[in-house]
Automatic annotation (TrEMBL):
This is 3-methyl-2-oxobutanoate hydroxymethyltransferase. One of its GO terms (cellular component) is cytoplasm. It holds the Pfam family Pantoate_transf. GO terms for biological process: pantothenate biosynthetic process.
Length: 79
């Protein structure tokens, strides 16, 4: 499972370290490498929707709005 832990700053907006295009490409690459799902943390709603629509594997959101397929709160150990 790929985990897009972007820290505590929202990613995919104009103020973030990573651009929306970089995160989308990373998600596609993670899927190509065989991931069974992707966890998106602190990603903008528009980008979450774009990533979810681009992948065949499930997206799971943690503080990533409600555009993921699975938006329930999950707890990551050592987080």
């Amino acid at each position: 499972m790929g985990d897009f832990n972007c820290g505590y700053q929202v990613q995919g907006n104009s103020k973030s370290k990573r651009t929306a295009e970089e995160l989308l490409e990373l998600a596609i690459q993670v899927e190509k490498c065989g991931a069974s799902a992707v966890v998106l943390e602190c990603v903008t709603k528009d980008l979450v929707k774009q990533i979810t629509d681009s992948l065949k594997i499930p997206t799971i959101g943690i503080g990533a709005e409600d555009a993921c397929e699975y938006c329930e709160q999950i707890r990551i150990a050592n987080d």
